[in-house]
Amino acid sequence: MNSDIVLAKVNAALTTAFLVSAPVLIATVVVGVLVGLIQALTQIQDQTLPQAIKLAVVLLILLLLGPLLGRQIANQASAVLDEFPVETR
């Protein structure tokens, strides 16, 4: 197996992982900043409030986008497994 092929497959896998995790990470950062701003403005000092809200947002995004994100990962894995016998000859 050529090292260029391996590097291309790893690059594609890392790109897919980055794109799949991006919606959850972006939403978590935005919600964290908004909740922190609201806490600063209202002087609420509860430490569990931001964590609970971020957890709810992550669960909601995974429920809504989970099938789409899972399909992308499954397609990537399927392509790698389909090409594996050809590349290892």
Based on the model shown, name its key terms.
89 residues; mainly alpha; 0% strand
Number of strands: 0
As a percent range, the share of helical residues equals over 70%
What is the succession of H and E elements? Answer: HH
Euclidean distance between termini CA atoms = 8 Å
Task: Give the overall silhouette.
Answer: elongated
Radius of gyration: 19 Å
Secondary-structure-derived class: mainly alpha
Strand content: under 5%
> Which stretches are poorly predicted, pLDDT < 50 over at least 5 residues?
none
Number of domains: 1
Oligomer kind: single chain
Number of helices: 2
In terms of topology, how is this protein built?
Elements: H1 3-42, H2 48-87
Helix pairs in contact: 1-2
Please characterize this protein's 3D structure.
This protein has 89 residues and is mainly alpha-helical. It has one domain (3-87). It is built from 2 helices and no strands. It has helices spanning 3-42, 48-87. The radius of gyration is 19 Å and the shape is elongated.
Quick rundown:
The protein is mainly α and 89 residues long. It contains two helices and no strands. It has helices at 3-42, 48-87.
